[in-house]
Amino acid sequence: MSKISKFFKGGGSAASKGRGGPSPQEALARLRETEEMLSKKQEYLETRIERELAAARQHGTKNKRAALQALKRKKRYEKQLSQIDGTLSTIEFQREALENSHTNTEVLKNMGYAAQAMKKVHENMDLNKIDDLMQDITEQQDVAQEISDAISNRAGFGDEFDEDELMAELEELEQEELNKEMRDVRLPSVPSTSLPSRP
Q1: Keywords in UniProt for this one (predicted)?
Q2: pTM
Q3: Where are the domains of the chain?
Q4: pLDDT value at 23 more than 80
């Protein structure tokens, strides 16, 4: 067994071991703590790099040995900084993957609950009974529509008369009324004098 696998196998807390591994929340919390620690180390290394660069400039050509030592330390700090950048990227990727896995697990769990609830709801439903019920509903809707149509149509009172006959009778009445009005009209008499001739 390698040292790394021993480290990871033996690295959990007693509470986590009893449950068969850490919960996603615990793992996420630890990853965030590690990210914070590495970010602080980054800041520290950036400060040290600036100091060593300033020291190398200060010694410059006066004390070449001190300037070279400062530049060597700066290079070591830059290498550490680069390693931390890579580690941070890896941790960030792992944290995002764990968050996504946890979200997917919760979604699947809730979908399972919903499926069980639907199964329970449909437990007492028989498709044949539903089909019969839907046919009954359709039939009753048709009956209701027929009743509604029957009620909304004009009642048949007076529909047995011929419309053409009625129109002819109405025209006769109008003509009689017109003749009566014409008899009562007095026209002016025609003048007896002759009209003047043209000038």
Answers
A1: Coiled coil, Cytoplasm, Endosome, Membrane, Protein transport, Transport
A2: 0.47
A3: 24-123
A4: yes
